[in-house]
Design goal:
about 90 residues; mainly alpha; 4 helices
Amino acid sequence: MNTLSKAIKRVADNQYVKLLVGVALLATSLQSEWDTLVSDVMHLQFKVQHGVALFALFHILTVLSALLKQLETARDQVTSITSHQAPG
């Protein structure tokens, strides 16, 4: 794999980049439709922006789930290291 493809993969696989993209997608999809969102949903008048917002929301939840799993793993590793250290 060449350097460019490695760099692209590193950016595309970055959880924080994915979170930023999801938040930006959610914000832009709701920006123009915020005032009519509840009315549209109540009357089942769905637009493209509603689908994009739903996709963005699930994307954000997926990324947050992965980040929380990484935090739990890191916490467990720190706990394991500190519990194996001798006192004093």
